Each structure stands twice: as C-alpha cells, then as structure tokens.
Amino acid sequence: MIAGLALALASAAATSIAFLLKHRGAVLAPDVQVRHPLQSAANLFRSRWFAIGWVVALVAWGLHVGALALAPLSTVQAVLSGGLVLLAVFAERFFGFHLGRRQWAGVIVTAAGLAIIGVTSDTDGETQSYALAALIVIECGVLLGAVAVALASTHHRVPAAAQGLLLGGAAGALFGVSDIAIKFLADDVASGVLELISPWTAAAVIASVVAFYASARGLQIGPGLEVIAITSVAANLIAIVGGILVFRESVGTGALEVTGRMLAFCLVIVGAALIPAPVRAADPDADGDGANGFRPDAVGEP
C-alpha cells in the first residue's frame, strides 16, 4: 500500500511536468487535424518540447501502472489529484505562469483534501472483486460521451478557449476510462499474461489514443493551465468513481470515516477547480516580467 502511494506521488509529479512540457511543444506545432492523424502526430513529435514531455509522460504512466497494481484505484487517483498542487508550483516557478490568491487557495484546499484521505485510508484496501455490469456501463458510457463532447467542441460557434476546455475535459474522461481498464487488467494479469488479450485492453488503447489527440489539440487552442487542470480533474473524478462502483472499494468503515472521505474527495475537486480559472497566457506586449504566464513566442527549441 505504502509503495503504491509512493509510486502514485512520483507519477503525479512527473505527469505535471509532462503536461507543461507538452503544452509548450503543442503550441509550437502545426494544428492537430482529425482527418490527418498520422501527420498530426508526426508534427507534434517534431516539436522537441512535446517529444520530451511525451517521454516524461510515458515514465509517469509506468509509475501509475505500478501504483494501480499495489493500491486501490480511488486512493491512487486521490494522490494523483495532488499533482495539481505540484502543477501550480511548477507552472509558476519554472514555466512563467502566475497564480493569484484564488489559485493558491485552491492549492491549500486540495492539500487539505489529500491530507484527510491519507489519514482515513484503509491499508487493507486490496481489490477483492469487481462489478462487471458497472465496468461495462462506465467504460462504454464515458467513452462514447467523451467522444461526443470532443466532436461537439469542433462546432464553429464554440469559442476557441471553450473548445480547448471541452477537449481537455473529454481527454481527462478518456484517461480515466483507460485507468479503470488498466486497474482491471493489473488485477487480472496475476492469472496469466494471456489475460491481457481482453476487450478492456482494447478499451484502454482506444481511450488513450483518442485522449492523446484531444489533449494535444486542447493544449493548442485553449488556455494552457486551465486545460491541464480540467483534464486532471476529469481523469481523477472518473477513476475515483470507477474505483468505488466497479472495484467496490470502500469509502470508509464508519459514519465519521465515510463522511470524512467524501468531504475529502469534494475538497480535492473544488480545490482543483479553483486553481486554474483566472490564469491566462501573457500578453506579448506586456512588461517582460512573466507575470501572466507562458508565451509560446518567447521559447525556442531546446
């Protein structure tokens, strides 16, 4: 359990850095086009910032899979939510964003929620069973819903910033679907490697691929930090719900513990929502103090 939480924390830090690097690279790359997925992927990886970010994201994914194999899904995702705290710190100190009082209040609220979850965690919380019906409903329902939101975001009447946020939310939901499938596979693979030949492997791959394009395009056209935050919130929310409904993970053993954990989950989500809202990219004509955030035109290739 402790090893799983340590891996989750390391994954959260790596994921935050990866998102910020990929944002820096995505805004320098040509537009992602649905009709040309291979060319769009090639263009993204030609941007060295994006390529570096993707490699870091791959490392974060490996740490995430290890965490899912050692700890309950909802607890892992709650720790990963703490990546928003790290995201805020990294974004301001190393990537030129500025966070106001509201954003730092969000950091504190998120940290408080995570502290409560840590205190009330069930150290014997290994998954003993799963609900197949809930797994099918959540995987299929969220996958179809996220794809529908991504397609709706392309409507010409939707402002670019809103399109970015919608794509970020859709990508996050798809990452959450992938996490649920990976957790199922991580528990099931103990019976043999052949268990990986499964519709849930296909679900994880499809969700991850669609999320890759949705996230990249969202980072290109939306406000960077907001898109990253909503992606993280959506992924964590879907995965936490999946842990409780699909894997029947306990939310507590008594009224006080259940209330405390539910409050903690709410605090994590509320805190995450407070962090990104007013953050915006810097005005190229503003003073060169970097106060308003990252400027794509101010960064060259490494």
Low-confidence stretches: 278-302
Approximately how much helix is present in the residues?
over 70%
Tally of helical segments: 11
| String of helices and strands | HHHHHHHHHHH
Tell me the β content. under 5%
Q: Biggest β-sheet: count, sense, barrel?
A: none
Distance between the amino and carboxyl termini = 39 Å
| Arithmetic mean pLDDT | 81
Radius of gyration: 19 Å
The total of beta strands comes to 0
Name the shape in a single word: globular
Structural class: mainly alpha
Structure described in brief:
This protein is mainly α. The protein is built from 11 helices and no strands.
3D architecture notes:
It is a single chain. The chain is mostly helical and 302 residues long. The chain has a domain at 74-277. Helices cover 71% and strands 0% of the residues. The protein contains eleven helices and no strands. The protein has helices spanning 2-26, 37-46, 48-70, 73-81, 83-94, 101-119, 132-152, 160-188, 199-221, 224-245, 255-274. α1 crosses α4 and α7 packs parallel to α9. The longest helix has 29 residues, at 160-188. Residues 278-302 have low confidence and may be disordered.
Task: Quickly list its features.
11 helices; mainly alpha; 302 residues
Write the layout of secondary structure elements.
Blueprint: H1 2-26, H2 37-46, H3 48-70, H4 73-81, H5 83-94, H6 101-119, H7 132-152, H8 160-188, H9 199-221, H10 224-245, H11 255-274
Helix pairs in contact: 1-3, 1-4, 1-5, 4-6, 4-10, 6-11, 7-8, 7-9, 8-9, 8-10, 9-10
